[in-house]
Amino acid sequence: MGIKLYYTTVTASRTVKSQQAEVMRILESKSIQYELIDISVGGELRDEMRSKAGNPSAVPPQLFNEDQYCGDYEMFSDAVEEDTMDQFLKMA
Question: What residue range is the signal peptide (predicted)?
Answer without folding.
Answer: none
